[in-house]
Write a structure and sequence with these properties.
alpha/beta, eight-stranded mixed β-sheet, 10 helices, about 15% strand, elongated
Length: about 300
């Protein structure tokens, strides 16, 4: 096999021991049709099942399959970045391992890329995810687009084909919080979207719980945008203007003798409201300071334990 294949497939692996054989089989089938050299880079995000043992067996059987194991569970996006760092292909296909992203659709992505695009994203037509997951993705895309003043499509996720020059730039991004699709959105280049078929999960269930999804969304938005701080500044200015106007109104009422004793209820409500606002603003600023602290430590986003490649 050539030293630098035409296409690299990168897939993070977690709780996928029953899926991996089928995944590799389907990638081989689509590459027979594309008829180009390829490699498959599987990244074990320290899965608690027997995924690593299955990956080693597959790599021993197929020389084009490289298996990487991280030192601990770092998360899906750091695992993708680890795989990208070992992908040598002129084109890189990134896909989840659960077979909801169907390998056969890589043919459609590759053909579109040959028309002169550097990035071809997969638009998941008729998503087979649950109502909650689709709703949360839509809400995240709307919120993220607003807070970052960019356009982000919830129908496109990790699945897509990317020119190696795009991957090189993505790997240069040293953000403490990793989000592969948002990195791709940020670096630019000539891109397009192609509709693909989305499938049911081949085996098992998604490991993303509500708390994990909320944490991911919260951290990602704060990492990519300082607009919440700007919104609080505008809110503070608005509250100051309202306070000045109410002050003048109160002085007027007092001067004409309509106010004898200041109201206790309005005073308490104002104190609680303004105190809550101040605490919230300080809390948001504190979170940003914490993110700066995390970034300043400059720790690696992943650590590779083992690379299994029978070509070496």
């Amino acid at each position: 096999m050539d030293k630098n294949p035409v296409i690299s497939f990168v897939s993070p692996v977690y709780r996928a021991e029953k899926i991996l054989d089928k995944l590799v089989e389907e990638i081989h089938l689509v590459m027979l049709e594309i008829n180009a050299t390829f490699e498959i880079v599987l990244v074990d995000d320290r899965s608690p099942d027997n995924s690593w043992e299955v990956m080693q067996r597959i790599s021993g059987k197929f020389p084009e399959v490289k298996s990487i194991r991280l030192s601990r569970n770092f998360g899906q996006h750091p695992a993708i970045m680890a795989g990208l760092s070992h992908a040598k292909g002129e084109w890189v296909v990134v896909m989840d391992c659960d077979l909801q992203d169907q390998p056969k659709e890589a043919l459609k992505l590759y053909r579109k890329a040959q028309e002169g695009f550097d990035v071809v994203l997969a638009n998941r037509k008729n998503r087979k995810d649950g109502f909650f997951k689709k709703l949360s993705s839509k809400l995240f895309s709307v919120l993220y687009s607003y807070l970052t003043d960019t356009k982000f499509d919830s129908s496109a996720a990790n699945f897509g084909i990317y020119n190696q020059k795009v991957i090189r730039e993505v790997l240069q991004m040293n953000d403490a919080i990793k989000s592969f699709p948002l990195f791709v959105n940020w670096v630019g280049f000539k891109s397009t979207i192609v509709e693909v078929e989305h499938s049911e999960r081949y085996s098992g269930a998604s490991t993303y719980t509500l708390s994990k999804l909320l944490s991911l969304a919260f951290n990602t938005i704060l990492s990519f945008s300082n607009k919440p701080l700007k919104l609080f500044v505008k809110f503070g200015l608005l509250m100051s203007l309202i306070a000045v106007l109410l002050g003048f109104y109160t002085l007027y009422k007092y001067s004409v003798g309509e106010i004898k004793v200041m109201g206790y209820s309005s005073l308490i409500v104002s104190i609680w409201f303004l105190s809550g606002t101040i605490i919230t603003v300080v809390g948001v600023v504190g979170i940003y300071v914490g993110k700066i602290f995390d970034q300043s430590k400059n720790r690696p986003s992943y650590i590779i334990d083992t690379v299994y490649d029978n070509k070496i």
